Known about the structure:
Layout: H1 6-17, H2 23-30, H3 34-46, E1 66-74, H4 79-90, E2 95-100, E3 107-113, H5 116-126, E4 133-140
Antiparallel strand pairs: 1-3, 1-4, 2-3
Helix pairs in contact: 1-2, 2-3
Amino acid sequence: MSELDSIDLKMLRILQREGRIATTDLADQVGLSATPCARRLKRLEDDGYIRGYRAVLDPKRVGCGLQAFINIRLGDHAEKTVAAFQSALLRRQDVVAVYAITGSSDFLIHVMAADLDALSEFTTRTLLRMPGIRDTQSSIVLSVLKAETAVPLA
C-alpha cells in the first residue's frame, strides 16, 4: 500500500464531501490534469483507501424514525458462542453497525427501526433470543446533533 501525499489527502477530503464529483472537476480542484487525477483515484480505490461510493439517506424519510444504541454483554466468550452471535447480528438489515468494544459490554450495536413498536419487536423477539446474550442496555436516540460519515484526515 502506498503512502498518501498532500494531493491524495486533498482528493479524499473532496470525495468525502462530494462522492459524485466528475473526475475533471476533481482534477481542477486538486491542481492536476484529468488523466493523472484518474490514475490517482484508481490507485486510492485499488489500495483500499476508498471502500465505495454511496448515497447518504435521511433515515426518517425512508421509514426509520427511531434509532437506538444497544450495549450487549455475552454470557461467555467461547468461540462458538461469539461466532453464532456475530453471524446472527450480521444478517439483520435493521442493525446498521456492530462494534466489539471494551468495558462492561462486549458489543455496541446501532439499530434503526420504524418506531418504538418495531424496536421492541426486534429486542424481545430477535435480539434477546440470539445465542449467548447475557444482558442488554438500550439507549434511544432523541435527536441527532452530528452524524458524520467522513473520516477526519490529517
